[in-house]
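Good morning C.,

I know you're traveling, so I'll keep this short. The sequence:
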Amino acid sequence: MIRHVVAWKVTAEDAEQKAADVATIVRLLSALPAVIPSISTLTVGGNMAYFDANWDVVLVADYETLADLDAYQTHPEHLAAGPQIKALVSARASVDFEF
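The tokens, ready to paste straight into the viewer:
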């Protein structure tokens, strides 16, 4: 199994706008398992504590194989979500590991 973990920092500084942007990212990514069959599991959520130190949004997704992760990365629905998310964030960190 491959675990794909991505965290984002939202650009907005205003708490209300930040919450709205986080909700948008969560909505966009939460829709992907219904249309991308290579996703085994996908969990995405906004940070709920230690706001000054933590990242704002995290995605944790599992794939049976690296080929399944590649299929996700290149799927049109994932590619369509990318620019929408990039417009809301200032930084992204990710790691993929086998478990």
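Safe travels,
E.
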